[in-house]
Amino acid sequence: MSNDLLEIRNLNVDYLLDKGEFRAVMDVTLSIGRGELFGLAGESGCGKSTIAYAITRLSKPPAWVASGEILFDGQNLLELPQGEMQKIRWKRIGMVFQSAMNSLNPLMRIDAQFHDVLHRHTGCSKSQSRQQAEAMFKLVGIPINRVCDYPHQFSGGMRQRIVIAICLALRPELIIMDEPTTALDVVVQREILEQVVDLQRTYGFSVLFITHDLHLMAQLCHRIGVMLKGELVEVGDVRQVSQAPAHDYTRKLWNAMPQLPGRHLAGAIA
Ligand SMILES: Nc1ncnc2c1ncn2[C@@H]1O[C@H](COP(=O)(O)OP(=O)(O)OP(=O)(O)O)[C@@H](O)[C@H]1O
């Protein structure tokens, strides 16, 4: 068994526009190990989200995966029939996006939303999903007596935690987090990410973490990849990318970020 859970090989993704095609992701090759927290950094528009959508096969027209392979546990996701892909999505590859907290159904109580997702993917009963909901609430630090509340009764940070809790309840092997806390204030953002790192230690899932914020990424991740205009220009462990960046653009990216005090959460930096 390869130690890599995800291997992206020579991935090219285009947007097919009236004026011609635009290559947003160019020949990207990267891998994420089992239990690894991998960060993808780069300025707005460099292609990070396009990669996230390609992995989950949620790219919508005009996006088009032109070529490449995306191996998940050795299986090329790009060749899987839709039905097989649906079984992998959420159950084995979880996703938390920036606006995920808005994806909760405002008319449904949270316990019912847990049941809806868990029943669909694992066939579990109402009492089993209720137990899971309470266990996950505890893990993400929300009192379990709130489990029957409606989404509007929670703050934005709590709602984002609930989405992470629902995602984790399915015990995915890989979680893709695309700017998962950008909409939240920095204190809440930090609390949530600290929890994600704790949970990762407990459950051992892998994370693809996407953000503009290199400092936050360096605190959270084991390895970092840096993208520039669709290309992956540098990949390395946090220490190398932060202290001895190989690419000029990575240096510029660090210099462009305000230096905030922080400590490393994932443990890659001693
Ligand atoms: N639906 C679309 N139609 C045309 N071009 C698109 C579309 N979505 C994205 N693009 C282009 O593809 C490129 C990559 O976009 P992408 O959203 O992947 O970047 P990103 O690095 O995730 O940016 P951000 O950090 O702002 O989310 C950009 O140039 C963007 O303008």
From TrEMBL:
It comes from Rhizobium mesoamericanum STM3625. GO terms for biological process: transmembrane transport. Belongs to the ABC transporter superfamily. GO terms for molecular function: ATP binding; ATP hydrolysis activity. It comes from the Bacteria. GO terms for cellular component: plasma membrane. The lineage of its organism: Bacteria, Pseudomonadati, Pseudomonadota, Alphaproteobacteria, Hyphomicrobiales. This is ABC transporter related. Keywords: ATP-binding, Cell inner membrane, Cell membrane, Membrane, Nucleotide-binding, Translocase, Transport. Residues 8-254 form the ABC transporter domain.
